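A protein record pairs a chain with a discrete description of its three-dimensional fold. The shape at a given residue is found from the number at the same position. Here is what such a record looks like in full:
>
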Amino acid sequence: LRRVREVRSQLIDIMKMQKLPIISCGFDYDIVRKVICSAYFHHSARLKGIGEYVNLRTRMPCLLHPSSSLYGLGFAADYIVYHELVMTSKEYMRTVTAVDGRWLAELGPMFLVSKNIC
């Protein structure tokens, strides 16, 4: 949580320097997920089968890393973005966020073919 506080403090400092109002999203987490999607749309994947995803750019199969917050929830998000890939005997995605496929088509149209989304 220390890292979260550091990032939050940095963001507040930037907002103050830019003279932007500091407004909370409250409990509307879709706003936060859309921001994450806008930064990581190039690291996106679509659900292929049970627990298996396929990278939207490279078409490489990927799995959720067991330490991921989405791993073992009992349901799988149709689309996700991830921060990093860990290569072992398989390719695993870590630091994963569920996103809406329409956000990917909107935020990364030059990288992602819309027929592969939605």
In short: The chain is about 30% helix and 25% strand. The two ends are 35 Å apart (CA to CA).
